[in-house]
Inverse folding.
């Protein structure tokens, strides 16, 4: 499977972001990608009026995303916001097939109430672990802060995921970038899965904000924790090969999932 890491700047204007998604999907298709992974909050950047921007998953923004995937012939995972019943919004990673059908939607489980931030004031948590078939591969979906909770990646692996996507707007801060790289590699090693993580970078055409705009460092990491691709801090699209058969070969020689002690620790 060829995977496109789409490291985009995200504007407060959803129409600008849709145009950037179209361009990135065209680049992904030119590179032979079958799956493109986009950042958290690709719809509209944090610091915007998320309630005003949020749409149902059958609304105009996701409908345009579906059409863009169909036009490019590339499946995608994209970060959006949808209204929640309690007046907040869901921070959602929505997955589309290469034919443009909406395959799955994952609502962020773990909200970033940490380091002076209170995501839960505006965002409602999801309640489901989601694995979807994309490009013929079982893919587990995560969003940003989720990566700090190893039980989620383990649950995805036990549900059959060979690849885990992480859509993020990882905030800058002391040791934060080191945490990002370390956590992504750890989740890949622990679960012998591929990890494809796509982050935002700041938008040079928008006013600075105190809200998270991302540090970049979109990565493709193999089941042994080797970083196969790293986009660094600049905007761009990078297409890299992820051999899904490598998951089986690693698990044959390093069967850490099979060697779990469910009799002691129980099932996830």
């Amino acid at each position: 499977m060829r995977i496109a890491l789409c490291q985009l700047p995200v504007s407060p204007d959803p129409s600008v972001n849709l145009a950037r998604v179209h361009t990135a999907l065209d680049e992904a298709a030119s590179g032979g990608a079958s799956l493109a992974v986009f950042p958290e909050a690709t719809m509209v950047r944090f610091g915007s009026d998320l309630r005003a921007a949020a749409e149902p998953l059958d609304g105009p923004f996701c409908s345009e995303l579906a059409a863009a995937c169909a036009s490019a012939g590339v499946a995608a995972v994209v970060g959006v916001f949808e209204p929640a019943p309690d007046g907040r919004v869901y921070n959602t990673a929505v997955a589309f097939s290469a034919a443009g059908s909406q395959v799955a939607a994952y609502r962020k489980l773990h909200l970033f109430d940490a380091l002076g931030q209170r995501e839960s004031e505006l965002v409602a948590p999801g309640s489901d672990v989601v694995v979807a078939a994309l490009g013929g591969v079982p893919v587990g979906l995560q969003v940003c802060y989720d990566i700090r909770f190893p039980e989620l990646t383990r649950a995805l692996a036990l549900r059959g995921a060979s690849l885990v996507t992480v859509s993020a707007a990882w905030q800058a801060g002391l040791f934060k970038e080191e945490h990002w790289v370390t956590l992504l590699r750890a989740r890949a090693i622990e679960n012998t899965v591929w990890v494809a993580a796509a982050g935002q970078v700041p938008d040079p055409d928008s006013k600075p904000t105190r809200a998270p705009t991302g540090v970049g460092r979109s990565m493709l990491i193999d089941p042994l924790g080797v970083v196969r691709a790293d986009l660094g801090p600049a905007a761009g699209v990078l297409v890299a090969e992820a051999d899904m058969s490598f998951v089986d070969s690693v698990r044959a020689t390093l069967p850490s999932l099979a060697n779990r002690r469910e009799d002691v620790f129980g099932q996830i």
